[in-house]
Amino acid sequence: MPSISRDEVAHLARLARLDLQPDELDHLAGQLDQIIGAVAQVNEVAADDIPPTSHALPVTNVFRADEPRPSLTAEQALSGAPEAEDGRFRVPQILGEEQ
């Protein structure tokens, strides 16, 4: 006999706006009982001397250091552009009128 009753499953189904058939209520009551039992087992294993973790392995930053380096000049960047205007890339207008 599951510790979660058929009425509790029906109540949860109503809250979730699920239309469950009577045989589904009985089936889900057993499944929810197993899920709650598994969570209870995890709670029993958890010990106070084990720190909480978000990852199984240590996470380190894999990015390079942010240091200034030489880059393209504006003229070099615009040299490959199909169209340029006033030192900027010229692109087709996509959002209606100019402001």
From TrEMBL:
Database matches in Gene3D superfamilies: Glu-tRNAGln amidotransferase C subunit, N-terminal domain (1.10.20.60)
Catalytic reactions on record: L-aspartyl-tRNA(Asn) + L-glutamine + ATP + H2O = L-asparaginyl-tRNA(Asn) + L-glutamate + ADP + phosphate + 2 H(+); L-glutamyl-tRNA(Gln) + L-glutamine + ATP + H2O = L-glutaminyl-tRNA(Gln) + L-glutamate + ADP + phosphate + H(+)
Region annotation Disordered: where it falls in the sequence: 74-99
Pfam family, one: GatC
InterPro entries: Asp/Glu-ADT_sf_sub_c, GatC
UniProt KW Kinase keyword: no
EC number(s) reported in the record: 6.3.5.-
Keywords noted in UniProt: ATP-binding, Ligase, Nucleotide-binding, Protein biosynthesis, Transferase
Stored NCBIfam families: gatC
Subunit structure: Heterotrimer of A, B and C subunits.
Family classification: Belongs to the GatC family.
Function summary: Allows the formation of correctly charged Asn-tRNA(Asn) or Gln-tRNA(Gln) through the transamidation of misacylated Asp-tRNA(Asn) or Glu-tRNA(Gln) in organisms which lack either or both of asparaginyl-tRNA or glutaminyl-tRNA synthetases. The reaction takes place in the presence of glutamine and ATP through an activated phospho-Asp-tRNA(Asn) or phospho-Glu-tRNA(Gln).
HAMAP family: GatC
Name of this protein: Aspartyl/glutamyl-tRNA(Asn/Gln) amidotransferase subunit C
Species name: Phytoactinopolyspora mesophila
Gene name per UniProt: gatC
